[in-house]
């Protein structure tokens, strides 16, 4: 892309997927025009490959890159699938089963975080990267499901690393300007679904 071309990012302020792309552009110091519409994780990969400015978002080592993509798919398919199942359950029995699966998947993600972060704060170590952006999209939906169900899914006894990671992620200078607070996510969901 030529340096004088204007980058246009299509997204939605409340979309966890837009936060990925906005934070990636921030990390790469790319100025852009923001258009409020839907978006995708592929944008993050494109941003990393198109701009060499700022830190690399995807790991440079092929095994680590494949691992990051594997866990991003796990997040998008398994954890988001579990979140949707909790929210869409027709009865308490279905909701309890889906909540159990969500907790199980979060425990698996916790283990992956502990291994990949090496105690340094983010999935890739000291710096925010691809998997952090992929996982960060869970924070809003988890906040909403927790508020609506009254169940805490991120718990100190089962996901201590993810809890600390979430605090660091939300506070990161590339994320903070774009990430709504848990209260804003809940208010948005209540308005969207016409819930008091």
Shape: globular
Quaternary structure type: single chain
Rounded mean pLDDT is: 91
Secondary structure: number of strands? 2
Main CATH class of the domain at 59-192: Mainly Alpha
Could you please say which CATH topology of the domain at 59-192 applies here? Glutathione S-transferase Yfyf (Class Pi), Chain A, domain 2
Helix share of residues? Answer: 55-70%
Distinct helical segment count: 8
**Sequence of strands across the biggest β-sheet:** 1-2
Order of helices and strands: EHEHHHHHHH
What structural class is derived from the secondary structure elements? mainly alpha
Strand content: 5-15%
CATH architecture label of the domain at 59-192: Up-down Bundle
> Biggest β-sheet, characterized?
2 strands, parallel
pLDDT < 50 runs, ≥5 residues: none
Rg result: 17 Å
